[in-house]
Amino acid sequence: MALIRSVLSPALLALALLSGCGGLAAVAGLGGGTAVNLDRVSREKLEAFGTPIMRATIPLLGIDTLLSPRDRKGDVVTWESADGYTFTFRSGVLVETRGLGPDLMSASAPGPGQIAAGGATRRSYFYTWENDASQRRDYACTSATEGQEAVAVYGRQHSTRHVVETCLREGGRLTNEFWFEGGTIRQSRQWISPLAGSGRFVLVIG
Amino acid sequence: MNRRISSLVAVSAAAVLAGSAPALAEMRPSLSFYGVPGIIDMPSGEAMKDGSIGVTLAYFGSQLRTTLTFQITPRISGSYRFSSTRNWSDALAPGDPLNDGYDTYNDRAFDLRLLLLEETDYLPAVTLGLQDFVGTGKNSAEYIVATKSFGDRLKVTAGLGWGRLGSYNDIGSFGDRPEVYDNDQGGKPSIDQWFRGPVAPFAGVEWQINDNWKAKAEYSSDGYDEVAGDRKIFERRSPFNFGVEYEYAEAVRVGLYSLYGTEIGFNVQLTMDPKRRPVGGILGPAPGQVGTRPSRSADPAAWSGGWTTQPGAAESLRGKLSKELAPDGLIVEDFSYTATTVHLRVRNTQIDSGPQAIGRSARALSRVMPASVEVFEIVPLVRGMGASKVTIRRSDLEALEHSPANDTALRGKVQIAEAGPAPGGLRDETVYPRFTWGLFPVLRVSEPLHGDIGLRLNASYELRPGLVLSGSVFQKLAGNFDECEGCKPSNLPPVRSDMAYYDLATDTSLDRLQLAWYAKPADQLYSRVTFGFLERMHAGLSAELLWKPVDSRFALGAEVNYTRQRDRDGFGFGEYDYGVATGHLSAYYDFGGGYLGQVDVGRYLAGDSGATFSLDREFANGVKLGAYATLTTASAEEFGEGSFDKGIRVTIPMNWLLGQPDRGEFTTTMRSLQRDGGARLEVDGRLYDSVRDYHMGVLDTQWGRVWR
């Protein structure tokens, strides 16, 4: 892994320049927009980095940034941004975030196969909550296909199946959305935490 | 005393402005002009959320009241109030016996409230309150009050009051209420007054118009006999008060009111919940990952342990480790290993949580150490002393890195033990000597509304582990404190009460210059010897020994000091020619749930003997609130106003405000009046608070951050 990291570092630096800053200002809601409008970056420019790239957008925290893989352990991949955030996915399903402040500390979640197949699943989310203690929230979820959708990602059309997962607990409800391209999650909107809300993740190159 | 109430208000404002959680639908209690849950000038029967802190600034009819209220437990709250009444003697003839010559009357008071009943569907919330229960008695009142909400928009309150709250339209009398004697020093619980004398009803309603606006009306049973009646500072024409309040983001409320038929008043209310961080979490960059070990077949040498004999392996590994830990402010002080175990002694200069520092150290070790190393022993160092030893198996780190609830799972696997002696491994010679400094603006309030703004320079030079030369200098920039109006001669040696004269004496002061030596003479024992200008008013020698087993709720300490009182200009000892031997035996107990108790028995600076009792409540994020009282052989007459020393104290870590990793913190003490009885030497760096951050109680409450 050390080798991969050192190769990635210049790429990360460049991604940082593209992504602009998030950090405290963004979390405190004091603005903190991006230096470069990520919508206007060309696919060629992103491909030139020679690494998989994901775009993460968290509207409540004002974060819009590019990620590259830092660490892979089996089906768990941790993606990092140059401004110090990491997002960890188990086969594309979000299980951890770090550096956001109101982070998702850990999670047990259904696999993409279960979500794509539809039907009932269970989820548990663990947050750092009041008094820095972990708080566990358990949900009973059902997922169902909404339909076929074409998703445009940086000039490329992907034909996807849009699956919505609805999760309930006593006194709470959340939804996750996945756009499956074959077995791959091309795009998703996944729950992070009560104060961060949901994040949108687009696999640009991967 | 309220040396720093203004900075506290600033801190609260910063905290709430930094952001807060979305509003809830329920009607949260708002705070009265007395800063306790209430309507306008009258209290209500509700309690604030457990652990909450309320700060209010309220003004009407020439009376300004600043109150800090802390919900100590779900049922008990305590308040500290500083009130200032202008035009105090304006309407009085010079020969009037009431005319005490004061232009502005300042008063400090403590309140205590007990929630007797929590609100249910059918029953109201009921609170018993003691207002100004250890003050001079002028504003004392007792009450029992009930509040019931109807739906989520209407609340109705009704209560019975004694003392001030029984001074208008009473409905009877519970015996005689003893007079307040003006020549009494006050400051003692006025038990013989409680619930005695005339009793009068009061009532109020609150209407939540929408999420932000609230309307209120009340009937007040406070006759303002002295302020409105005798002194005619304002005219009390009606018992009815009305107001509207605007609430912003749950944490800030501002209100405008019509009071007593003649006055317009305002109330600014700030509420903080120390259990919640203003920025909603712990910021700072994501941690590095757990390293992946190569398979045995891919790298047999790393697994065999043969690498330990390679020349230069130790330097190379230590160098890599230092580089991995540097971004988190973690400094490798000592590093030794065998083929299977690594022992790391690490100093944490930045991360405010022990588990987070330990978790990051462990992951760095997993990225650096060859595959055969299975056991990680991490010893956090505090001032060169090993505070504890946390032993983590590398396989557990690897297995749990991405599993659900991995914090509790990991806690079940690690061992926390005594630090033990340093193995004398590979010490990094570049760590010492180590110089650090900081320069920051400070507000120094010498008496109410008078003080200086200035700069404080703190510097520390650590010669070798545990041997620290440090100092602190204050430079005045501007101020309005030119003469001490409130200074009164003391009946005891002026070991504290002359502080204002020290503030007046020089624009630049060397508050502290000391050499401290910390050591760990044996397991469970920690020691400190400090010599020099220990604080602004006293210089000398201070020695302390602490017994604190790593897994114990209980600790014992002993401290002895010999000090001489410094001249007001800071140098020399001729002005007071006062030397004193002081010392304490201390017992500390961690009750769990963040409640910490402490008893110190011994001799104080004025030569009086006695004991200090303290109770603090500490939250996982480092916010700490507490109260203390010191009873000594100094009599109430010797002590002066207030009779004995007592107060409340607040510690707010920088990290809680900023969210960013930072080990700095503010502490402020609010006491009834700083006098000379029960005054303790303010020596920097006492052992208990330094060491326990890495002991079991604190590590366990913060353990959720080990994977942060």
Overview of this protein structure:
The complex is a heterodimer of chains A (206) and B (708). By secondary structure, chain A is an alpha+beta fold. Chain A has helices spanning 2-19, 23-27, 43-47, 112-117, and strands at residues 53-58, 63-73, 76-80, 86-90, 93-98, 104-108, 119-128, 134-153, 156-169, 172-181, 184-193, 197-205. Chain A has a single domain (2-205), classed as YmcC-like fold, CATH 2.40.360.10. In chain A, a hairpin with a 2-residue loop joins β2 (63-73) and β3. The longest helix of chain A has 18 residues, at 2-19. Helices cover 13% and strands 42% of the residues of chain B. In chain B, the strands form three sheets. Chain B has a 13-stranded antiparallel beta sheet with strand order 20-21-22-23-24-25-26-27-28-29-30-31-32. In chain B, strands 1-2-3-4-5-6-7-9-10-11-12-13 form a twelve-stranded antiparallel β-barrel. In chain B, strands 14, 15, 16, 17, 18 and 19 form a six-stranded mixed beta sheet that branches. Mean pLDDT of chain B is 89; it is low at 1-25. The A-B interface holds A 1-2, 23-24, 27-29, 70-71, 73, 76, 78, 80, 84-86, 88, 90, 95-96, 98-103, 105-108, 124, 126, 128, 130-134, 136, 193, 195-196 and B 18-19, 21, 273, 275-277, 279-287, 289, 291-292, 353, 367, 401-408, 619-621, 658-660, 701-702, 704-705, 707-708.
Gist of the model:
The complex is a heterodimer of chains A (206) and B (708). By secondary structure, chain A is of the alpha+beta class. Helices cover 17% and strands 54% of the residues of chain A.
User: What form of chain B results from the Cα inertia axes?
Assistant: globular
CATH architecture descriptor name of the largest domain in chain B: Beta Barrel
| Range of helix content of chain A | 10-25%
Mean pLDDT of chain B: 89
Q: SSE string of chain A, helix = H, strand = E?
A: HHHEEEEEEHEEEEEE
Whole-Å distance between the termini of chain A?
18 Å
Supply the number of structural domains of chain A. Answer: 1
Radius of gyration of chain A: 17 Å
Strand fraction of chain A: over 45%
- Relevant CATH superfamily of chain A: YmcC-like
Instruction: Report the biggest beta sheet of chain B as strand number plus sense, adding barrel if it closes.
Output: 13 strands, antiparallel
CATH superfamily of the largest domain in chain B: monomeric porin ompg
Counting DSSP H or I runs of 4 or more residues, the number of helices of chain B is: 12
User: Which chain pair shows the most residues in contact?
Assistant: A-B, 42 and 41 residues
> What is the overall silhouette of chain A?
globular
Q: Strand arrangement, largest sheet of chain B?
A: 20-21-22-23-24-25-26-27-28-29-30-31-32
The total of beta strands of chain B comes to 32
Would you tell me the structural class of the helices and strands of chain B? mainly beta
- Taken as a percent bin, the fraction of beta residues of chain B is 35-45%
